[in-house]
Design goal:
Radius of gyration of chain B: 24 Å
Low-confidence stretches of chain B: none
Largest sheet of chain B: 3 strands, antiparallel
Strand content of chain B: 5-15%
Shape of chain A: globular
Mean pLDDT of chain A: 84
Low-confidence stretches of chain A: none
Radius of gyration of chain A: 20 Å
Number of strands of chain A: 0
Number of helices of chain A: 10
CATH class of the domain at 32-136 in chain B: Alpha Beta
Order of helices and strands of chain A: HHHHHHHHHH
Structural class of chain A: mainly alpha
Distance between the termini of chain B: 96 Å
Oligomer: heterodimer
Order of helices and strands of chain B: HEHEEHEEHH
Number of strands of chain B: 5
CATH architecture of the domain at 32-136 in chain B: 2-Layer Sandwich
Helix content of chain A: 55-70%
Shape of chain B: elongated
Chain lengths: 321, 171
C-alpha cells in the first residue's frame, strides 16, 4: 500500500515535470520546425542546437515588467492566465502515458477531459473581459463562440471511439485498440477531432481569438511578463494535450512493437502530432471568423453526427450477426 | 480541402530544401561590386588624393553628414584640409558619389561599421582615405582637366590641344 502511494506521487511529479519542460521546450521546437519549413535555421546559437533559447526566453519572461493596467479588473485579470494552465494540466490526469503511468484511472476519463477543456474557455473570456480593452474583448468573444461551438462536435466525434470500446475510461479505450487502432474504423472521427482540437487550442489555422494581424493579440493584448507566459505555456500544453489525446484515442496509445517501452512509443507518437500542429501553423491561412463558424456548424457538426450514427448502426449490425 | 492538404505537403517538402540563411559572422553574404556601404576617399594612379575639395558632395548630401574644408598646395592643386563624414547620420544613398566630379568619393561593399561609442562613427580624412583607386582605375583628374597646376600648363593634359592664341586670329 505504501509503495503504491509513493509510486503514485512519483507519477504525478514525473508527469508534471515532463509536461512543463515539454511546454517550454516546444517554444524551441516550434521555432526550429517553422524555420525548417521556411528554409531557415531558426534559433541555433545559444547552446547545443540553440536549446538554451528556452532558458533565455524563460528568464526574459520572469524579468519582464509584470504590468496590470489601471483600467483592468485586477482580480480576474490575475486569475485568468492561471485557469488555462490549471485546466489543461488537470486534463493530463486522465491520460495513460504508459501501461502503468496514469495519474487517475477514472471511468469518466473522457468526460473529465471534455469538461476541463471547456473550463479553459473561461481563461480566454475572463482574460479578455478583465483587460477592459476593445481588441481583447473582441478576441474573447470570438474565442468563446469558437471554442463552445467546436466543443460540441469534438465531444460527438469522440463518441464513436466510446461506442467502439464501450468505455469512457481512456486506459480501457487504449486497451480496446489491441487488435486494431481506432484510426481505421474511426477515420472520419479522427479528422473531426483533429480539426476541433486545433480550434480548441486556438492554434494557427484557427487562432481567431488571437489573430495578431487583425486584433493586435486578441484576448491577451494587455498581458505582459509571466502572465503572458502562462497563456503561452497553456497554449503549448494544450497542443501537447490534444496530441496525446489523439494518440491515446486513435493511435493505440502506448502500444507499439515491443523493442521500445510503452512510454517511449506514446511520447514518439505525441511528438508526431505536435509536429503536425506546427506544420499546420506553417502552411495554412487563417479563415475569416464567419467562415470558421459556418464550417463548424454546417459541415463538421452534421459530419460528426453522421459518424456517430453510422458507427452505432454498424456496431448494432455486427452484434446481430 | 484538397488544396489545404496539398499545401501542407508542399510546405513539408521544404524540410529537404536548401537553407536560405547565411550564418552571418562565420559566413559572409556576397555583396555586389556596386553595393553602397562604407564611404572612402580614393587616390589617383600616382598615389595623390583625388578629392579637389569642390564641396559638391557636401551639397548633395541629404542629411548633411559631410563636412570639409578645401585648401591649395603650392602647385595649385586643391585638396581638402579636413574631410569628415558622420556615419551615424549617413543614409548610404550614394548621392555624394554621383555628385563627385573626380571619382574621389566612393561607396564600398562593406557594412561592418558597428561601434560601441557613437563618437567613433565620425570618420576623419585619415580614416576615409584608402590606398586604392576604387572603381575607376587609371583615372587621374589633373591629367585630363584643362587646369594649370605646377608642372602642367594649360593644353598639356591628355586629349587636349594647346589653347588658341586669340591675338593671331585678328584680321
Amino acid at each position: 500500500m505504501q509503495t503504491a502511494a509513493v509510486n503514485y506521487w512519483w507519477v504525478i511529479g514525473g508527469v508534471l515535470f515532463t509536461l512543463l519542460n515539454t511546454a517550454a521546450g516546444l517554444i524551441w521546437l516550434e521555432r526550429r520546425m517553422l524555420a525548417l519549413w521556411q528554409d531557415r535555421y531558426g534559433p541555433n546559437r545559444a547552446g547545443p542546437f540553440g536549446l538554451f533559447i528556452v532558458l533565455a526566453d524563460t528568464i526574459k519572461l520572469f524579468f519582464k515588467e509584470d504590468w496590470i493596467p489601471p483600467f483592468a479588473d485586477k482580480v480576474v485579470f490575475v486569475f485568468a492566465p492561471a485557469i488555462v494552465v490549471a485546466s489543461v494540466l488537470m486534463s493530463f490526469a486522465v491520460i495513460p502515458f504508459g501501461p502503468n503511468i496514469l495519474v487517475a484511472d477514472w471511468n469518466i476519463g473522457l468526460l473529465f477531459f471534455l469538461a476541463m477543456s471547456s473550463i479553459g474557455v473561461y481563461s480566454i473570456v475572463l482574460g479578455g473581459w478583465a483587460s477592459n480593452n476593445k481588441y481583447a474583448l473582441l478576441g474573447a468573444m470570438r474565442g468563446a463562440s469558437q471554442m463552445i461551438s467546436y466543443e460540441v462536435f469534438m465531444g460527438l466525434a469522440l463518441m464513436g471511439v466510446v461506442l467502439l470500446s464501450g468505455s469512457f475510461n481512456i486506459r480501457e479505450i487504449v486497451e480496446a485498440q489491441k487488435s486494431m487502432w481506432n484510426i481505421v474504423p474511426q477515420f472520419l472521427g479522427f479528422v473531426i477531432f483533429l480539426i476541433a482540437g486545433v480550434a480548441e487550442t486556438h492554434r494557427l489555422p484557427f487562432d481567431i481569438p488571437e489573430a495578431e494581424s487583425e486584433l493586435v493579440a486578441g484576448f491577451h493584448a494587455e498581458y505582459s511578463g509571466m502572465k503572458f507566459g502562462m497563456f503561452f505555456i497553456g497554449e503549448y500544453l494544450g497542443v501537447t494535450l490534444v496530441s496525446s489525446m489523439i494518440v491515446a484515442l486513435y493511435f493505440g496509445g502506448w502500444m507499439g512493437p515491443a523493442f521500445l517501452p510503452g512510454v517511449v512509443w506514446f511520447i514518439l507518437k505525441t511528438f508526431v502530432f505536435i509536429s503536425l500542429f506546427i506544420l499546420m501553423r506553417a502552411s495554412m491561412p487563417r479563415p475569416r471568423y464567419d467562415q470558421l463558424m459556418e464550417y463548424g456548424w454546417k459541415v463538421l457538426f452534421p459530419l460528426s453526427l453522421l459518424n456517430l450514427l453510422v458507427t452505432a448502426a454498424i456496431i448494432l449490425i455486427m452484434k446481430e450477426a | 480541402m484538397f488544396s489545404l492538404i496539398r499545401s501542407m505537403w508542399l510546405v513539408f517538402l521544404h524540410m529537404f530544401h536548401k537553407r536560405e540563411t547565411y550564418q552571418y559572422p562565420e559566413e559572409k553574404a556576397p555583396l555586389s561590386a556596386r553595393y553602397r556601404g562604407r564611404i572612402a576617399l580614393t587616390r589617383d594612379p600616382d598615389g595623390g588624393e583625388r578629392c579637389v575639395g569642390c564641396y559638391l558632395c557636401a551639397a548633395a548630401c541629404p542629411v548633411d553628414c559631410i563636412t570639409l574644408q578645401a585648401t591649395e598646395d603650392p602647385d595649385g592643386r586643391r585638396y581638402p584640409a579636413f574631410f569628415r563624414i558622420n556615419f551615424s547620420r549617413c543614409i548610404f544613398c550614394g548621392f555624394c558619389e554621383e555628385a563627385c566630379p573626380t571619382y574621389a568619393i566612393q561607396l564600398l561593399p562593406d557594412f561592418e561599421m558597428a561601434e560601441y561609442n557613437r563618437q567613433n562613427l565620425v570618420y576623419e580624412k585619415e580614416d576615409l582615405l584608402i590606398n586604392s583607386q576604387g572603381k575607376y582605375p587609371g583615372y587621374n583628374y589633373y591629367k585630363v582637366a584643362g587646369m594649370a597646376i605646377g608642372g602642367k600648363d594649360k593644353g598639356e593634359a591628355k586629349k587636349e590641344e594647346p589653347p588658341v592664341d586669340v591675338k593671331s586670329l585678328l584680321p
